[in-house]
Write a structure and sequence with these properties.
Layout: E1 8-12, H1 21-35, E2 40-44, H2 51-65, H3 67-80, E3 87-89, H4 95-105, E4 112-116, H5 126-131, E5 135-140, H6 144-164, E6 171-176, H7 186-197, H8 234-239, H9 242-253
Parallel strand pairs: 1-4, 1-5, 2-3, 2-4, 5-6
Helix pairs in contact: 2-3
Length: 255
Amino acid sequence: MESENKTKFIAFSSQKGGVGKSTFTVLVASELHYRQGYNVAVFDADFPQYSLVKMKNRDLGMVMENEFLKKAAFRQFTSINRKAYPIIEHKAEGVVQAAIEFLESSDLRFDFIFFDLPGTVNTPGILKALAGMHHIFTPITADRVVMESSLVFTQLMNDVIMKKGSTSIKSINLFWNQVDGRERSPLYELYSKLIGELGLTIMRTQVMNSTRFRKESEAAAKTVFRSTLLPADERLMKACRMDQFIAEFFEIINS
C-alpha cells in the first residue's frame, strides 16, 4: 500500500467528540468522489453508532422526498457515470485488513478509502487501525479540553506509533475547525506556537465555523452541505474555506 499509485488510506481522527471528524469524512469523500472524479470508499468503524451508515440511509430518503435534490442527484449520477461511494460497516478491530480484502475483491480501482474511527484509544484495535493509515487529519478547536486531548493523542501517534517503524503513516496533520471569523482569539496564535514547539504539524487553512457542519439536508433544501450522495454546494464550501482545505489536503497527500 505504499506506492503513490496505490489506494490512500485516510482518517479524520480525534480523541474528542464534537470536533467534526465524521463531518469532514463525508465532506471530503463526497467532494473527491462526486466533483473531482476519484473513486472513493468509506469504512464506518465508529461502533456502535455507525453514524455514517445511518446518514447515508437518511440521505437516500431525503433525496427521494425532495424534488430539487432528486433532480440534482439524477443529473449528477448521469453525468459522472459512477455510483454513490460505498459506506461499509466494520468494527475498528481488523478494519485495515478488511479494507485490503475489499480492494482485492473489487473490480474497481479505488483512489481513496476513508475511515471513520472511534474517538477513544481504549477501543480494541484502534491503535493498529491508526497505524495502518497513510495520512491522519485531526480537527481541533480553541478549547482547553479539546486541545489537551488532541495534543496527547497526536503525540501518542507521533512519538509511539510512527517511531516504532511498523506503520504506514506518512503524515499527521492538526487543523483548526469551527473558527469564529468575528472573534480574534489569541488562543489560536498561542496554541499554534505550542504545537510547533512540540514538533507537530498544523495546517495553514483554518476552517470557519458554520451551522451547516451540524446540519444534514432539509426537506425543502435547494442546496446541500453534509451529504453522502451529493457534494457540498461550492458557495458554502468557499464560505467556510473548505475549498482551501481541499487544496491543502492534496498538497499534503501528494508531497
